[in-house]
Design goal:
Blueprint: H1 13-29, H2 33-40, H3 44-51, H4 59-68, H5 73-87, H6 101-112, E1 113-120, H7 131-141, H8 147-160, E2 171-177, H9 178-182, H10 188-201, E3 207-212, E4 226-231, E5 239-243, E6 248-251, H11 254-270, H12 274-286
Length: 288
């Protein structure tokens, strides 16, 4: 995943976790890639791809690998049950017709994260958008698509928001550039409703929103939007996501992730305190 565009079948977080566990079990057992490959009669490259979650789990392969690594029978059964679950497509699979492969990985990460921190300089984050705001953006971003496809894209975005209502919802900390709130999207009525939605989000116990005012001037995150994910799995590193018009970069090298976090921390100090957000949203709403 490190600093590469995602390609092929985007893995679920569980598949990534189990791939990491397989690698740990192999290394603890002192088994080489070559020996593991011989045990299941494949190439060493296939074993590497299994551990990197680049392919789905073939249960007979996983069973034989675990046996080769000396894993007790009872633990093998538990692992295989998780492997079968990991092979199941995520809920977003039903939206695959309007979901780019490179963004599928993002939805998987978002769905399983325990902490999401993000900086947005252009638009309200998808997790906090209203239907009409999202629809207006989709019509701009995909001007040649049918109304049905636009509706599907909006439905996917709103479905992602179910995450915030879960008992184990992630902590979401968003820093929004003032531009986000002043850029008209869909007209005044749509913007008023969107500002109301952000105000309502402040009532959620795990949602924090800060606004980076124009008066701050230049700041360290001005190069573009980025999102940071932390997980409740020790096997999965923190991940930072950035995107372009045609793809995405997922960064998980610790030194690189720390660089993004340091920038995020500096920006959180420059931004208005969370306690001021409600008042600022109210002031901006009155201007519409």
């Amino acid at each position: 995943m490190s600093d590469n565009r995602s390609g092929g079948s985007a893995p679920t977080v569980l598949r990534m976790v189990l791939g990491k566990r397989l690698r740990q079990l192999r290394e603890q057992a002192g088994v080489s890639f070559e020996d593991a490959a011989r045990a299941i009669e494949v190439t060493p490259l296939t074993v590497r791809r299994i551990e990197k979650a680049e392919v789905g789990f073939r249960i007979p392969y996983v069973r034989e690998l675990l046996h080769t690594y000396g894993v007790p029978a009872a633990e093998i059964d538990d692992f295989l049950a998780l492997a079968r679950e990991a092979n199941e497509p995520g809920w977003w699979y039903s939206y695959r017709d309007v979901l780019p492969e490179w963004f599928s990985a993002y939805v998987s990460l978002e769905s399983e994260a325990s902490v999401i921190r993000l900086y947005e300089p252009h638009y309200v984050p998808g997790l906090l958008q209203t239907h009409d705001y999202a629809a207006a953006l989709m019509r701009i971003g995909f001007p040649n698509e049918t109304k049905e496809d636009i509706d599907r894209r909006v439905a996917l975005r709103l479905k992602r928001q179910d995450l915030l209502a879960k008992p184990d919802a992630p902590a979401v900390w968003a820093i929004l550039d003032e531009t986000v709130l002043r850029r008209p999207v869909g007209g005044a009525e749509v913007m008023r409703a969107q500002l109301d939605r952000l105000t309502e989000a402040l009532e959620m116990p795990k949602v924090r929103i800060q606004i980076l005012r124009f008066k701050v001037g230049a700041h360290p995150g001005a190069f573009g939007p980025f999102h940071y994910f932390r997980f409740g799995f020790s096997e999965l590193p923190d991940v930072v996501y950035t995107e372009s018009l045609v793809g995405a970069v997922y960064v998980d090298q610790p030194t690189d992730v720390v660089t993004y976090l340091e920038v995020m921390d500096r920006m959180s100090v420059q931004a208005e305190p969370v306690a001021r957000t409600r008042a600022i949203l109210g002031e901006l709403r009155k201007e519409l």
